[in-house]
Write the structure tokens for this entry.
Amino acid sequence: MGIVFGGLVWILIASSLVPIPLIQGWVMFVSVFCFVATTSLMVMYIFGTHGGETSWITLDAAYHCVAALFYLSASVLEALATITMYDGFTYKQYHENISAVVFAYVVTLLYVIHAVFSLIRWKSS
């Protein structure tokens, strides 16, 4: 689910107009990095390249904690940029930014949930 919503955030940020380019760059970096890294980890797990080693459990827990923090920072910054939109922006652009913020928070929640379960699995291993 995180991959789908993460891809949606990526698309919405790429198509939206953010008043502060530095914020848009950070949100794009976070969404693309997490999308690619999550997809890579999923493919490696599907093909069994982890070999059942406990280091992969540590990697999974660490990655999802970092991804949750990255997405939290990106969500807050995107919300701040959307709030500060002034004249010169259309209603459609404002709604695209609101959609990006909502889905960024959904992805943040999904990464936090996965991080919690990964940390529980890491602690029990």
